[in-house]
Amino acid sequence: MTLRWILIVISLVLVASAATADKKYGKQVRFAGIHPIPKAEGGGICYIEGPHVHIYAANKIEYRTHGDDNVFVGDPVAYGWDGPKYTYKGPHPIHVEAVVGGDPDVEYCYLDGPHYHYFQPPEGPDFKVVGGAYFYVSEPPRVFIDTRPTYVGINAVYRPIVYARPVVEVEAPVGWVGARVEFIGPGVAAGGRGVMVAPAARVGAEVHIPVPSVHVGVEIGGPAVIVHERPAPAVIVVPHGKYKHKKYKGRW
Amino acid sequence: MRLAWITLATLVAACTKQGSDKPSSRDGVIAAWKKAGLEPSSFTPATTQVGKDCVSATVNKLDVLICSFGFEQEAKVAEDNGLAWIGDATGASRAQGSTLIVVADRHKADPSGRTINQLVTLRTK
């Protein structure tokens, strides 16, 4: 009898402490900053800056946790964002505290090619602006490389989305992280083949080796994206049918 | 002795200023909303777990709670209680100085969150 009561009390304490630690109330999920609204909830963009709550979940690939909050690290323009936007090319770190406040926290964006964010990177030597786009040119931290396999699938989510993508038609600066072998792999380099694309879209890739340039042309509903890149140590072409997008289809 | 008087005078001045700020902060928030074209209904005293000095109303069909606190830190700490007041709905709980603003969209009146954002970010002049 006594043991049962002890177990009950311990269970209650654990449940109570877990609830407090999560800082959740009912079905609430905490977000910080603007983000897309799931199609099932009406779609579009949630324009609430700073911390707020919804009663739907954040997916694991386009969001990172920052304290108790989920922060969107994808391209909001793909979902209809019409506010300030800044062009980036290739993977890069995000200083989350500079975007939504809170404690210092560096997360990583693994979107290949040109894309938008609604925030600028912090000033400093880590980013170079060429042709109006931010290129990350610093030595990537180990964690940036190690967590890439977890998040690189984000490219498969965005590839079929039809929207006005940024146009970057310049040679990438020396030291650009996108040319490093650690950042070339499935869904990166000439990964247009075998990808499910909207009917009106066209994806093409030309790879010239050993000519010291790679020309990739992509047209998906919006302006053409023409990127001239420095030669990468290796070019990996994604096999047909590698990404079918079934996992994320209809979720966002 | 002189130091004690100076300290006492400073404390009295601080408390007096704090007290005089309370109504103007709340009124200032509501005035800023009206100036931005939002349409608050009449605010009435509210009894909640969020704070002891709260008023509630609707603004553009959103449920809004405004609570006044003695100190900025108290308002900041009460943000979590504000989230509990929101319940199972989209909403935000944000301290502005010693005033806490809590907004709940219980009727899905603001699907894009633009009005909620205005309510929690508009600053009093």
Features:
heterodimer, A: 252 residues, alpha+beta, 4-stranded mixed sheet, 15 strands, B: alpha+beta, Phosphorylase Kinase, domain 1, 5-stranded antiparallel sheet, 5 strands, globular
Task: Describe this protein's structure.
The complex is a heterodimer of chains A (252) and B (125). By secondary structure, chain A is of the alpha+beta class. Chain A has a domain of 157 residues. Helix content of chain A is 16%, strand content 24%. In chain A, a hairpin with a 5-residue loop joins β14 and β15. In chain B, 45% of the residues lie in helices and 24% in strands. A 5-stranded antiparallel beta sheet of chain B has the order 1-2-3-5-4, sandwiched between helices. In chain B, β4 and β5 form a beta hairpin. Chain B is globular, with a radius of gyration of 16 Å. At the A-B interface, β3 and β4 of A face α3, β4 and α4 of B.
The strand line-up of the biggest sheet of chain B is: 1-2-3-5-4
Give helix and strand order of chain A, one letter per element, not per position: HEEEEEEEEHEEEEHHHEEE
Query: Tell me, what's the shape of chain A?
Result: globular
Choose one word for the global shape of chain B.
Answer: globular
Strand content of chain B: 15-25%
Structural classification of chain A? alpha+beta
Q: Give helix and strand order of chain B, one letter per element, not per position.
A: HEEEHHEEH
**Termini separation of chain A:** 51 Å
Low-confidence segments of chain A: 11-22, 187-252
Largest interface: A-B, 20 and 21 residues
- Total beta strand runs of chain A: 15
Total DSSP E strands of chain B? 5
Oligomer: heterodimer
